[in-house]
Specification:
- By secondary structure, the protein is mainly α.
- The protein folds into 2 domains: 46-136, ERV/ALR sulfhydryl oxidase domain (Four Helix Bundle (Hemerythrin (Met), subunit A), Up-down Bundle), CATH 1.20.120; 138-173, no CATH class.
- 61% of the residues lie in helices and 0% in strands.
- The chain has 9 helices and no strands.
- The chain has helices spanning 3-12, 21-28, 47-63, 71-87, 91-103, 111-128, 138-147, 150-158, 164-167.
- The longest helix has 18 residues, at 111-128.
- 19% of the residues are buried.
Length: 173
């Protein structure tokens, strides 16, 4: 799906999972009716929040996938990706992901192959969104999604609280 078609599909989708915080901020800039009751501020995840959480789940699943999976593991991984793509709450995102999976089916022969496949899928989406690519080396992916960076490991040993970036191996200070 092209960037233009994705943008058009986003306009057709009424679900919060298809929305963007940018649209929400525009609504916030509109005048508020006087006397309107205060509402609970918790909202369902929007497209960006859902995407970040989804990539965390996919990358972490791949990072913990068996190094030498049996046939049952490989079937389960393929079904997981198939179900994830079929049930993803953002309809145009799901359609785009299903097409990407058709063009580049999950490689589930090993942890390394599954991790690299997830990274390639993530970078395909990042490219469409104009975002920077993430490094697709197995060692870096394992650090980001399973073992943690050296700084993360030092903090864990000391019992210090970690920032979200540190838990993902993205801050090596």
């Amino acid at each position: 799906m092209s960037a233009r078609n994705t943008a058009e599909a986003a306009l057709d989708c009424e679900e919060i999972a298809c929305s963007s915080k940018i649209g929400a901020f525009r609504k916030l800039a509109m005048p508020v009716q006087q006397g309107a009751p205060l509402e609970d501020a918790r909202c369902p995840p929007d497209r960006e929040e859902l995407g970040r959480s989804s990539w965390t789940l996919l990358h972490t699943t791949a990072a913990y996938y068996p190094e030498r999976p049996c046939k049952k593991d490989m079937q389960a991984a393929k079904r997981f990706i198939e179900g994830f793509a079929a049930l993803y709450p953002c309809s145009h995102c799901a359609e785009d992901f299903r097409e990407a999976v058709r063009q580049n089916p999950p490689r589930v022969e090993s942890r390394e192959q599954f991790s690299l496949w997830a990274c390639e899928q993530h970078n395909t989406v990042n490219e469409k969104l104009g975002k920077a690519a993430i490094p697709c080396t197995f060692a870096k992916l394992q650090e980001m999604w399973r073992t943690g960076s050296a700084a993360c490991q030092r903090k864990l040993e000391r019992g210090d609280e970690l920032t979200p970036e540190e838990t993902l191996g993205q801050d090596d200070t």
